[in-house]
Design brief:
Layout (H helix, E strand, L loop, with lengths): L3 E3 L4 E3 L2 E4 L1 H9 L8 E6 L4 E9 L4 E9 L7 E6 L3 H14 L3 E5 L16 H15 L6 E5 L2 H12 L4 E5 L15 E5 L7 H10 L1 E4 L8 H12 L5
Parallel strand pairs: 1-4, 7-8, 7-11, 8-9, 10-11, 10-12
Antiparallel strand pairs: 2-3, 3-6, 4-5, 5-6
The chain binds S-adenosylmethionine (SAM).
Length: 239
């Protein structure tokens, strides 16, 4: 936690917030903060700054916060991800939030097991919790929007063309002819397949909708690795 993300419920006054639970435990045991110490904080979907610890007990910490700094720029990326298996899903969510993805679409695909959609990690509180962990890791405050589409064909035929308006689109698929471009730094849409990959039919449909097939070389990467590799090829984080 490189920043404690504060939600509206945490605020007891314009410049005062209370931390409890996980964030309090982190403050005490990892940051080893005491009264008078300053810790990095941010308000969800708002500014970032510092919080001075005014009071610290076993159950809560009260902070005086000064929020003056803008969060880092968002990636101009719409990420379309075939629903990963639950074990990997939490990590992928956190990674997406840390990388600055703000627009995430979770879609069905032939090799996504139906049971993946039953995972409790898709519930609103769990989505928020994991996205919060990713934002706190990267020092960002802007909560990504996650949309779920459990039918591949209607999504690709009816919604994808609209999402592609004004942006370049790619589908990452091993064995395609074109290497994934680098330093694009412009509005983009990227599709990443499931553990078993997109089927040829699905790649064809994504291409028909306007996504170009791109590859990352002969090494087949896990989804959780492919996401940061693809994002860091397309966008320069340290410009
Ligand atoms: N056996 C699957 C296949 O050949 O498509 C492997 C799928 S891979 C574990 C999961 C997803 O990560 C792929 O669908 C693709 O979107 C992306 N990916 C992983 N390695 C890749 C590579 N070398 N080139 C392009 N995309 C890759």
């Amino acid at each position: 936690m490189n920043l404690a993300l504060l939600f509206d419920d945490d605020f007891i006054a314009e410049d005062r917030a209370r931390l409890t639970g996980r964030r309090l435990a982190h403050l005490r045991s990892v940051l080893k903060a005491g009264t008078g110490d300053q810790v990095p904080v941010g308000r969800v979907n708002g500014r970032m700054g510092m919080g001075e610890v005014l009071r610290l007990s076993d159950t809560e910490a009260e902070l005086r916060v000064q929020l003056t700094q803008l969060p880092p720029p968002a990636l101009p990326l719409t990420l379309v991800l075939a629903m990963p298996r639950p074990k990997m899903f939490r990590r992928v969510l956190q990674t997406c939030a840390s990388l600055g993805v703000k627009d995430l679409w979770l879609i069905h695909s032939y090799k996504v097991e139906k049971s993946f959609w039953q995972t409790p990690w898709l519930s609103e509180p769990h989505l928020r919790e994991n996205l919060t962990l990713g934002l706190e890791q990267a020092r960002d405050t802007v909560m990504p929007r996650v949309q779920v589409r459990q039918r591949f064909k209607p999504f690709v035929e009816d919604e994808l063309p609209g999402l592609l308006a004004g942006r370049q689109g790619w589908v990452a698929h091993p064995g395609t002819a074109t290497p994934c471009p680098v330093h694009v730094n412009a509005p983009a849409l990227l599709c990443i397949g499931p553990e078993g990959g997109f089927t040829p039919y699905e790649v064809g449909k994504l291409e028909e909708a306007g996504c170009q097939g791109v590859h990352l070389g002969p090494r087949i990467l896990r989804v959780e690795t492919a996401v940061p590799v693809l994002v860091s090829r397309l966008f320069d984080a340290c410009r």
